[in-house]
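Cross-posting from the modeling subforum.

Setting up a comparison between two proteins and wanted a second pair of eyes on the formatting. Protein 1 (sequence, then structure tokens):
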Amino acid sequence: MNRGIVYDGVPSKEELASCPGVPSEERMRQGRVAVIECVQEIPCNPCSFSCKFNAITIIDKSYSDKEVVIDFPFEYLPLPQEHQVVDAVNRYGEVVCKGIIKKVKQVKAYAGTTVVSMIIPIEFADEVRSMKRLAR
């Protein structure tokens, strides 16, 4: 099955590997970093533009030897609760593993978008990008 921006609108692993903004594994293990998964060669920079401190943080591979923390926007209700176990999903919305909600941030500066921090096993750090919506 062909996957990639042209085929299904989601970047493939090969396309992501060619992105110039992807930090090295060594850098990611030093602390939180932003991973901008954009394979389009257009002058677009909404993530860093919206951060007035130039400190967008998405993946933290320095959390532990076995787990990482990823942050992602979540605009669905109900919101998860801290310590809740949820289904972690990939770019396609497919369940990859279980995650534990570390923090749910609702800050006025985020313009209504909740940012969720989730702990997942380190081997899924480059695959998990969100969580499955919770039942109402």
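Protein 2 (same layout):
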Amino acid sequence: MKKSHIIALVVIAVAVAMIISTVGDASTYSDFGEAKRMAEDGNSNAVHVVGELKKDGMGNITGMVYQPSVDPNRFEFMMIDSLQNESKVVFNKPKPQDLERSEKVVVVGSMNLENQYFEAEQILLKCPSKYNNEGLEVEETAMIENE
């Protein structure tokens, strides 16, 4: 075999290995019930849970706790997923800016069975835009990571 053929085969093998490794790390969309079942089965893979902040009858957000003077890296809130399951979410980073204005929230993480809450590694916000064009809304997506 020529040297160029060997190099091409090595490059292809590396590319296939990278694709397989990224597929294995991919998280799935789920709900809080599925996240809890996965944790009970010992599966610690991250899942995406889509939902909204819990609000009272007047439309005010309830269950949000952020005390930067006590612990600036702990933010808690109540979230209702797409199947109407409710769970406390803990994010060990500062509170994301404009969280209250977001239409939908996507939390990425896993269920903490010991403390009975969802531990978020990332929070993705889908915020309404201030730029509206005759009923068309342009939306922004913000990503906050917990490193």
